[in-house]
TrEMBL record:
Domain of life per record: Bacteria
Keyword Transferase assigned: yes
Reaction it catalyzes: a 4-O-methyl-thymidine in DNA + L-cysteinyl-[protein] = a thymidine in DNA + S-methyl-L-cysteinyl-[protein]; a 6-O-methyl-2'-deoxyguanosine in DNA + L-cysteinyl-[protein] = S-methyl-L-cysteinyl-[protein] + a 2'-deoxyguanosine in DNA
Species of provenance: Paenibacillus rhizolycopersici
Pfam families named among the record's database cross-references: DNA_binding_1 (PF01035), Methyltransf_1N (PF02870)
Record-linked PROSITE patterns: MGMT (PS00374)
Taxonomic lineage from the root: Bacteria, Bacillati, Bacillota, Bacilli, Bacillales
Protein's name in the database: Methylated-DNA--[protein]-cysteine S-methyltransferase
Length: 178
């Protein structure tokens, strides 16, 4: 039985080699992956907007399975994430985020490709806005979306993070396959 009481948002900080980022989950799944090297305030602002009144509770144990999968990805030992997500957005945003999850590891797509994949070819700008609202960096791979001309474009985590993720995937994709 669901209550109207705000449910807690559990969080932890992932420190893995050169990667430091915050993670948050609800009881339903991973809800947030932060930007590389950004402060806790980024998570707090997101939680306040998306889950008003929900307390933030640090819980390393609850986030450990998500941290483990992210660590495997950052070590190029995982290509897909299998734990549950708690994605909340409009129907359009959810369609875009689902299309992002369909982009194969080590490959990229353009904003136009995503608009066509969700059968809204004239919604390229709206696709860009939905991608910018993606709360699950890395796990919902918006870093795999580039400009139609092949140029790197905006990324909530910053272009340095986007470049690092694409380089990681490219190296793993072109290296010895598992």
């Amino acid at each position: 039985m669901k209550t109207n009481q705000p449910q807690p948002i559990y969080w932890s900080r992932l420190n893995d080699g050169q990667w430091t980022l915050y993670l948050a989950a609800t009881g339903d799944g991973l809800a947030y992956v932060g930007s590389f090297g950004r402060p806790f305030e980024e998570l707090a602002v997101w939680a306040g907007r998306r889950f008003p009144g929900s307390p933030l509770m640090q819980d390393e144990q609850r986030l450990a399975p998500y941290a483990a999968q992210l660590t495997e990805y950052l070590a190029a030992k995982r290509e897909r994430f299998t734990l549950p997500f708690d994605l909340r957005g409009t129907a359009f945003q959810l369609a875009v985020w689902e299309a992002l999850c369909d982009i194969p590891f080590g490959q990229t797509r353009s904003y136009t490709d995503i608009a066509e994949a969700i059968r809204k070819p004239s919604s390229v700008r709206a696709v860009g806005t939905a991608i910018g609202a993606n709360p699950l960096l890395i796990t919902v791979p918006c870093h795999r979306v580039i400009g139609k001309n092949g140029a790197l474009t905006g990324y909530r985590g910053g272009l340095e993070m986007k470049t690092r993720l694409l380089d990681l995937e490219h190296a793993a994709f072109t290296g010895s396959r598992r």
